[in-house]
Amino acid sequence: MFYKILSAWLGFSLCTLAFAQNSSHIKGFVVDEKTLQPIEGVNIIVENGYAISTEKGEFNIKNLLNKSYQLKISFVGYETQTITISPPFKMLDIHLKESTTILEEVEIVGHSKHRREKESSVSSVSVDKTFLHENRENSLMQTLEKIPGVSTINIGSGQSKPVIRGLGFNRVAVVQNGIKHEAQQWGADHGLEIDQYGIENVQIIKGPISLLYGSDAIAGVVNIKAPPVPLNHTFSGSVNLLGESNNDLIGVSSGIAYRKDKWFYRGRLTYRDYGDYKVPTDKVVYDNYVFDLHKNYLRNTAGKEANASASIGYVDGDFQSETFISNVNGKNGFFANAHGLEVRVSDIDYDKSNRDIDLPYHSVNHFKITNTTCFLIEDHHINIDLGFQNNYREERSEPVPHGYMPKPADSKERSFNKNTYSLNVTDMFYPFNHHEFIAGLNVEYQDNNIGGSGFLIPEYNRFAVGAFIFDKYEINKKLFLQAGLRFDYGVYNTFDYYDWYPSKVDDGNGGTTDEYLQRSKAANLHFGNVSGSVGLSYIADKTTYKFNIGKSFRMPLANELASDGVNYHMYRYEKGNIDLDPEESYQIDLDINHTTDHGYVTFSPFVNFFDNFIYLNPTPDYYETQQVYEYTQSKVFRFGGEISAGTTLFHKLELDVSTQYVYSRQTSGPKKDFTIPFSPPLSGLVSVGYQFQDASIFQAPKVVVSYIITADQNEIVPPEKTTEGYQVFNLSFLLQIATISSEKPLEIRFKLNNIFNTKYYNHTSFYRLIDVPEAGRNVSISLTQNF
Prior knowledge:
Layout: H1 2-9, E1 24-32, E2 43-46, E3 49-52, E4 58-64, E5 69-74, E6 81-85, E7 92-96, H2 113-119, E8 124-128, H3 129-134, H4 140-144, E9 150-155, E10 159-164, E11 167-168, E12 172-176, E13 179-180, E14 201-206, H5 210-213, E15 220-224, E16 234-244, E17 250-260, E18 263-274, E19 283-286, E20 289-292, E21 303-316, E22 319-333, E23 361-377, E24 380-396, E25 412-429, E26 435-451, E27 460-474, E28 479-494, E29 497-498, E30 503-506, E31 512-515, E32 518-520, E33 523-539, E34 543-554, H6 558-562, E35 564-567, E36 572-575, E37 583-596, E38 599-623, E39 626-649, E40 653-666, E41 683-691, E42 698-710, E43 726-737, E44 746-753, E45 778-786
Parallel strand pairs: 1-7, 12-15, 36-39
Antiparallel strand pairs: 1-4, 2-3, 2-5, 5-6, 8-14, 9-10, 10-11, 12-13, 14-15, 16-17, 16-45, 17-18, 18-21, 19-20, 21-22, 22-23, 23-24, 24-25, 25-26, 26-27, 27-28, 28-33, 29-32, 30-31, 33-34, 34-37, 35-36, 37-38, 38-39, 39-40, 40-41, 41-42, 42-43, 43-44, 44-45
């Protein structure tokens, strides 16, 4: 929900269209004449009134008399238009033409989205659909991994989960259309069930932001914004085809959008099917076993994904509402030599086909329905988000008895069925001059049921409620103070669980008895905490300075509190701790951005302290040949940051350089003086792009070469292994061909990843735990036709 709030600061969104009785409004849209895309920040000036177009291209000039007016429409890079209109005023559809001359100076009478971002003290990065298209990989988070400070935990070739500045899992909140995405993200082998196609704008917030999001935003937020409302009386869409060589992937995604007057509709279908992926080695060595790989395929890592989404919306002046419905369904195999070393004892011929999804595998279906409604009541801008999500996940493996367990009747090892109900309400208002207040309420209820022959976490339900107040004070035109306070209260109820089979237990008299062991006890836990932040932003001519200090918290999860079972995907026995306290984090962020006509430089350091960081601590004990890990807490000190710079040379050559580093140290507990798990190493990215001139029907040809360099990671927590540094080269070629029309050309993207088929290990990859390298050379071709 933070991005909903932030977008209110950054442009007052669609819903800041006020209605004044006994007066007239002039409303309309501003689009690019050639592309028909909305233009944000356009100045529309009229006698005794003005407006700035929103990111959706809409504007509204209020409180006008019923008489004729002359409008002046201007924006840098476009020809200025002057039009005369008379009552009754109709919806205006203004098309601006690009200008080849320098526009006369125009007085800016409002704040654009870019200006609002500068005024915020939060360290964040926004990417648009151009970035997403040019950098698209197999999953959303792999696509966003190019952003400094962002890394991923990859689960094979088709899944990944976000890591921001070395923190992941439930410490990063993923928000889509104002609602937190709730699945089983506590598991390292659980990916992010979101279709990346159709996404046009993502904001990455780096640093603790529990003030606006509550628990789970202690490290940052990946905020996926809804696409802009279609322009009035328009129909548009796109078809995307994708093929890859490494895992023989084939994929298609198609979406449409339509608007007539006040009602608008959207829809999208996506299907992806891929085989086992190849690695640049013919064998994997794990746990003193050598596993030969057939033709370099990492056997049983194939998968498929089928997604569907639709929305219906209504917009009328000061009221807007849109309901989103989506369903993401996936099935993915696990490397057959990782889960209980199946290949040594299994009758399955894993090498007969690289497209079969054999046991072990997992399947997941995530259904989501959300509604976002915003409207004005006098001077109050009200935003309401409602959401329901169902996440059903099954983990299947060959029926194998463990310990006293008899052979299970079927292959369902575990299942999780989680329902989540969400409500977010915010009110933005202006009680005093130069003050912008936002008050908010967040309510969430979760109900998680389990099944299958194995036990790891208990059934539970969780209720959480939080309220906050936030104020942005404009000290002067260049200096802004922001501060806020939040209180959260949460209740966990975990339920009893007994093994479905009896185990032999010492009776204390030299004999044994058969007992159904209790894995989980019923518990009722209450958590309350306070979050807050204070920040300053100063906007100089070409440099923006941001400073923010904040406190965040995170409630313990059910697996951290009450897990008690073997996690074969992670090769360990996990045991929870019912006495865990909420995590509390204190962080200082600094962000300096200097931008000129020739380029930019950004420096974003941070210092962070956890009073009680929760992590799985390996012990010297073993259960059923698996090492026992227990959840515990320790104090953790962290610092690091990102540096990025870019420039354009000779008008055609683009150069971008970035580096990121995180230092972590436990200052108490059983692993004192060690780092924390899944800590990414020092890394850098150099990207060089050259824009060629158009030639006949070939438009905007561009070549980009990227060079990734990563240092050794010797800062580990045993039994983690050190990881050698690596260097990888990637190549991209982008081209547009005017087939159907020059305004809607066919977009072609050719990518060659890991050009030299380098064998390397990603320290934060899921399969790094068993010494599996990253994917080898991969050629991908993407075709996108907009209409």
